[in-house]
Amino acid sequence: MARQFKQQFQIGHFSIGTGKPLVIAELSGNHSQSFDTALAMIDAAHEAGVDAIKLQTYTADSMTLDSEHSDFVIGEKDSLWAGAKLHTLYQKAATPYEWHMPLFEHAQAKGLLAFSSPFDEDAVHFLDGLGVPCFKIASFELTDIPLIACAASKKKPLIMSTGMASLEEIEEAVDTAYAHGCRELVLLKCTSTYPATPENTNLVTMPDIQKRFGCSVGLSDHTRGIGVAIASVALGACVVEKHFVLDRNAGGVDAEFSLEPAEFKLLAEETQRAWQAQGEVTYGGTLAEQNSKRYRRSIYVSENIKKGELFTRKNLKIVRPAMGLAPKYFNEILGKTAECDLQKGQAMDWTFVDKP
């Protein structure tokens, strides 16, 4: 299907594709079921300089079944949540629906974008009723085609994490979004391990995603630290999302791979610097570098020279600054005679060279 996604568009008051990357602080379940903690997280995220906060909208019952069957227990021994029953984990991590509006209003009052990831169609309708500026589709839900169709039908921008998805699965998700009215799409490169490693992040996939699907790209990052997220900006990320926690040592379901406020502040600052550094193809130095050119090297008289004396390596030197003849003429001048008396420290000029 031919797609015509906009490369530049608005999410709320924020411009996608024309300015610095949108930096999103994902609150997830790190509020540990405390409304006051959730409010404090928004305050800290604002102080850190993020552009948006994001929630997750689901209930344990809408996410999974309350079953003792082994299918519903996390069996991977290396998982942060090894042995946890899915229903219990989602109960612990869920953000109560009644919190959404006051949390959104609190964020908006501080100038932040505020939106969420819906995990079922009812959540899409609920969030749409709250006037969210966009929807985020989580990587594990990218194959939930009815969910994407429902979210796209609201005619708002979609941000979709690609996670473990194959090209065919991304294609189906993108085509579904387009077929149901989405024209403003960001696909996020994402590695769905918690935490993820830099070696498994494969950021060079981002430009390929942009080329294949004709949409904006970004990164949903689960690595520790900020290096990977900053690097993504150089590869075209217009959205950078990281999980947020007030204090990793205090816990939180995603605390292990979440950034604390000071780290998020650094992330916000450095992603902006990375974006500013991209610039454009430039040779010959920028306008800001013009004054620096005078401190290149050139040919200078290094010892007093009498008229008629030969120029040699003893009385000429290539040194800084660049007020004399360019160094490329040095060998051409050696062996020629001086047209006049010269003093040590004079910048060499062709008028000083005797012409036979």
Structural account:
Helix content is 30%, strand content 16%. The chain is an alpha/beta fold. The strands form 3 sheets. An 8-stranded parallel sheet has the order 5-4-3-10-9-8-7-6. Strands 1-2 form a two-stranded antiparallel ribbon. α9 (227-234) links the parallel β9 and β10. The termini are far apart.
Query: Structural class of the secondary elements?
Result: alpha/beta
Query: What is the C-level CATH assignment of the largest domain?
Result: Alpha Beta
Total domain count: 2
Instruction: Return the average pLDDT rounded to an integer.
Output: 94
- Radius of gyration, whole Å: 30 Å
Q: Distance between the terminal alpha carbons, to the nearest Å?
A: 77 Å
Strand order of the largest sheet: 5-4-3-10-9-8-7-6
Return the CATH topology of the largest domain.
TIM Barrel
Order of helices and strands: EEEHEHHHEHEHEHEHEHEHEEH
Helix content: 25-40%
Uncertain regions spanning at least 5 consecutive residues: none
User: In this structure, how is the largest beta sheet organized?
Assistant: 8 strands, parallel
CATH architecture of the largest domain: Alpha-Beta Barrel
| Strand residues, percent | 15-25%
Number of helices: 11
Total beta strands: 12
Shape: elongated
**Which homologous superfamily in CATH is the superfamily of the largest domain?**
Aldolase class I
